[in-house]
Amino acid sequence: MKKLITFDLDGTLLNTIGDLAASVNYAMTELGLPTFSVAEVQNMVGNGVRVLCSRAVGSQHADLVDKAIELQRYYYNLHCNDQTCLYPGIEKMLSYLEKSGFIVAVYSNKDQNFARKLCKTYFGDAVHVVFGTTADGITKPNAHKLIDYMNKLGIDAAHSLYSGDSEVDIQTAQNANVKCISVTWGFKTKQFLLEHGAEYLADTANQVVELANELIAD
């Protein structure tokens, strides 16, 4: 039986927060609005660029959201890999998972073009497919893209896992009826994840491999 593990990208496989913060602050500066610290932007991410920019401009400037998105995307397209880096152990983790018989996918709320660009740069062929936000506007925790891919592969929920660093990822896994491995090195704290229903926690990339092999036996 085939096995699938799907990962979130930002805060799970890649530390992208420096470039995300820079892109948000570029948009804010261009719009004449206050900028944010990296930690503040870290608390805004996770639900896609529209929500991110809405949170950044604030309700009092809701009319500027579309312009903020345009500016953020312009800057991020040029600078999406200035500060971004792999979290420790990710390359080995993906290699071990493949050797254990897992198909590896990525489902991110990042713009699909950016997500695929970064995955190609860092993971090459180690990631089989990358889903991100497209013109349809569908974002996690909507799990339809994941469910459709599972159906395409002929993989049932009992042989599929999801792994991410946020409450959105926990909800996505629940909506796909698959187990979620929550990683603690990302944009949310371990306590936050537990408060939002995390059941399986991984403090290291190696623990993801161990949990994956425990949760889905051959």
Can you walk me through this structure?
It contains 10 helices and 8 strands. A 6-stranded parallel β-sheet has the order 5-4-1-6-7-8, sandwiched between helices. The model has no long low-confidence stretch (mean pLDDT 95). It is of the alpha/beta class and 218 residues long.
In what order do the strands lie side by side in the largest sheet? 5-4-1-6-7-8
* Topology pattern, helix = H, strand = E: EEHHHHEHEHEHEHEHEH
How much beta, percentage-wise? Answer: 15-25%
E-strand count = 8
Q: Rg, please?
A: 17 Å
Number of helices: 10
Main beta sheet strand tally, sense and closure: 6 strands, parallel
Brief summary of the model shown:
The protein has helices at residues 17-31, 38-42, 49-57, 65-79, 90-99, 112-123, 144-153, 167-176, 190-195, 205-215; strands spanning 3-7, 14-15, 85-86, 102-111, 129-133, 160-164, 179-183, 200-202. With 218 residues, it is of the alpha/beta class.
Task: Give me the secondary-structure topology.
Elements: E1 3-7, E2 14-15, H1 17-31, H2 38-42, H3 49-57, H4 65-79, E3 85-86, H5 90-99, E4 102-111, H6 112-123, E5 129-133, H7 144-153, E6 160-164, H8 167-176, E7 179-183, H9 190-195, E8 200-202, H10 205-215
Parallel strand pairs: 1-4, 1-6, 4-5, 6-7, 7-8
Antiparallel strand pairs: 2-3
Key attributes of the depicted protein:
8 strands; alpha/beta; elongated; 6-stranded parallel sheet; 218 residues
